[in-house]
Amino acid sequence: MPIPEDVTGEEIDKDVRQELLSLPKTLADDVAKNLVMVARLIDEDPEGAYAYSRIALRLASRVAAVREAAGFAAYASQKYAEALAEFRAARRMTGSADLWPVMADCERGLGRPEKALDMAGAPEVQKLDKAGQVEMRLVVAGARRDLGQLDAAIVTLQSPELASNSVQPWTARLRYAYADALLEAERVGEAREWFAKAVEADRDGSTDASDRLAALDGVDFVDALDDDEDQDENAGGVEVKAEAEAEEARPHTASVVVDDDLDDELDDELDDGLDDEDVDGDKD
Q: Which of 14, 132, 176, 281 is least enclosed, having the fewest CB within 10 Å?
């Protein structure tokens, strides 16, 4: 697959670059460029990111960072079995527990929420940092909802991290998940409050909390381009209608003879009628 000219491979994280030092330089550069493309596309074009990840995987399958990137690309493309296999491979190479929450979420994606709950009780969870523990909590809440245990999901999300006023990278997603669970439980007032709090914390637009809040408030956003097109169509309809009425009102000289004064009077009345139509059309 083509690599844009502005991609050099130097854009990748220094830790990943360090891992690639085990490869010949030319090969390392090629792998790095493909990993850059994975990171660039994974949010907007998951399938494109997945394609680049497969190239990197073919070139350097023994590098943990490559297996991890391939896992996230597959995960973003909802290829959960493949993602889980890549995450397991990366974890075997590094011995790190960092991927444990996303591995559990892959189990959810495969329709095995019970397995995700089992993983939540594993020793690996104790090795997670604060961000990882919050991610695990989100996965557990999702698994509870998968099983129809809505009240348990809500309780799972009620944590010190949720109550904290400080904004962390996970805050918006945690508040959003809590609001969404409350809304499913038909606790609309509380849901609206937490969607609003999610909006406050969502500095990079990682959730659609603002849209959800607007929907609860009954706000309907209309695309400006669509609105202009509708106005043009309405204006066109008024013009066509006015022309048709004018044609119907205009005397036909082939069958009716009208003196000049009466003709002028009819023209004046017709002009007044058209002006009224234009005013009505503008009001519409």
A: 14
